[in-house]
Design a protein that fits this description.
Shape: elongated
Pfam families: PP1_inhibitor
Organism: Panthera tigris altaica
Structural class: mainly alpha
Distance between the termini: 78 Å
Order of helices and strands: HHH
InterPro entries: CPI-17, CPI-17_sf
Oligomer: single chain
Family: Belongs to the PP1 inhibitor family.
Helix content: 40-55%
Subcellular location: Cytoplasm
Largest sheet: none
Length: 72
């Protein structure tokens, strides 16, 4: 008596790559504008994006553009 074949391994979820230009977001006037832009970029994302966008905007608030020389 033979055993049935093992089930196939679970398929990994296909995750599309996405680039978000932080410098572009830093150039925007307000968080509302930034949030709208990120929502545009994530339009094809089927998972909830609100927490991600909120966290991203929190991090961006403390950043400066890399192209701007830092003053000592």
């Amino acid at each position: 008596m033979s055993l049935p074949p093992p089930p196939p391994p679970p398929q990994e979820e296909e995750i599309p790559e996405l680039e978000i230009d932080v410098d572009e977001l830093l150039d925007m006037e307000s968080d509302d504008t930034r949030a709208a832009r990120v929502k545009e970029l994530l339009v094809d994302c089927y998972k909830p994006t609100e927490a991600f966008i909120s966290g991203l905007l929190d991090k961006i608030r403390g950043m400066q553009k890399l192209s701007t020389p830092q003053k000592k």
